[in-house]
């Protein structure tokens, strides 16, 4: 159990991202943009981003058949983003119903957040504040990664040596196992603390639909 916990701490530590409180809900203020009357059977969705002009994607779901060794076919679903607006704010006419919109994440190149939005028969406005990913990590995080790696290895070595020394009543092996386990556990604990202390941050965005 100790070995499994230490291994999990070492493996999971470097991936830690600190979650910040979400952005405040944007104000229900429609952008100054012309809204032409939609055609029959169409609704109008006005999309605005509070962070400034932003490309907006419409996300479709695609599927890919996968055949296993027994000939059974399953399907892998994946997102297919397609540019809907080169820059917000924009007005899009589409049939009433649900649509998935994709927005970039500030600071995380290539990342796309998908939001499900309902389009009404009457014009509505969807305003969004983008999520923000910040990675200003430095020396403390690097020390933490080294600490968890070295400490985890030392602790696992101690977990192996200590029971052998106790079982065979070998004082040198018992002392070596105990010291190695203790130092390794301390280094691992410091490493995990340092990684979390100097972790990248993620601030979720927020939206309003009116």
Task: Describe this protein's structure.
- This protein starts with a helix and ends with a strand.
- The protein has helices spanning 2-12, 139-167, 171-197, and strands at residues 18-19, 43-49, 56-67, 73-85, 90-94, 97-105, 108-119, 124-129, 132-134, 201-203, 206-209.
- α1 (2-12) packs antiparallel against α2 (139-167) and α2 (139-167) runs antiparallel to α3.
- It is α+β, with helices and mostly antiparallel strands and 210 residues long.
- Helix content is 32%, strand content 36%.
- It has a 4-stranded mixed β-sheet with strand order 5-2-8-11, with no helix packed on it. Strands 4-3-6-7 form a 4-stranded antiparallel β-sheet, with no helix packed on it.
- The protein folds into 2 domains: 2-14 and 137-201, no CATH class; 24-130, Immunoglobulin-like.
- β3 (56-67) and β4 (73-85) form a beta hairpin.
In short:
The protein is α+β, with helices and mostly antiparallel strands. It is 32% helix and 36% strand.
Q: Uncertain segments of ≥5 residues (pLDDT<50)?
A: 1-14
Number of domains: 2
Question: What's the CATH architecture of the largest domain?
Answer: Sandwich
User: Which of globular, elongated, flat, extended, rod-shaped describes the shape?
Assistant: elongated
Distance between the termini: 52 Å
- Say what the CATH topology of the largest domain is: Immunoglobulin-like
User: What is the CA-atom radius of gyration, in angstroms?
Assistant: 26 Å
Portion of residues within helices = 25-40%
CATH top level assignment of the largest domain: Mainly Beta
Strand content: 35-45%
Largest sheet: 4 strands, mixed
Instruction: Give the number of DSSP strands.
Output: 11
Which structural class fits the helix and strand makeup?
alpha+beta
Number of helices: 3
Mean pLDDT over all positions: 83
SSE run: HEEEEEEEEEHHEE
Cross-sheet strand order for the largest sheet: 5-2-8-11
């Amino acid at each position: 159990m100790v070995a499994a916990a230490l291994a999990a701490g070492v493996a999971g530590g470097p991936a830690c991202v600190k979650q910040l409180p979400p952005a405040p809900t944007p104000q229900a203020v429609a952008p100054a943009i012309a809204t032409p009357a939609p055609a029959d059977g169409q609704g109008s969705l006005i999309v605005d981003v509070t962070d400034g002009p932003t490309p907006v994607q419409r996300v479709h779901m695609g599927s890919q058949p996968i055949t296993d060794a027994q000939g059974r076919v399953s399907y892998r679903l994946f997102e297919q983003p397609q540019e809907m607006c080169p820059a917000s704010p924009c007005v899009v006419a589409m049939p009433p119903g649900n649509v998935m919109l994709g927005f970039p994440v500030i600071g995380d190149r290539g990342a796309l957040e998908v939001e499900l939005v309902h389009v009404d028969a009457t014009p509505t406005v969807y305003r969004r504040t983008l999520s923000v990913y910040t990675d200003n990590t430095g020396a403390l995080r690097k020390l933490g990664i080294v600490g968890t790696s070295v400490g985890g290895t030392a602790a696992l070595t101690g977990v192996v040596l200590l029971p052998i020394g106790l079982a065979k009543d070998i004082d040198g092996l018992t002392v070596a196992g105990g010291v190695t386990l203790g130092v390794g556990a301390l280094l691992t604990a410091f490493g995990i603390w340092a990684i979390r202390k100097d972790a990248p941050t993620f601030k979720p965005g927020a939206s309003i639909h009116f």
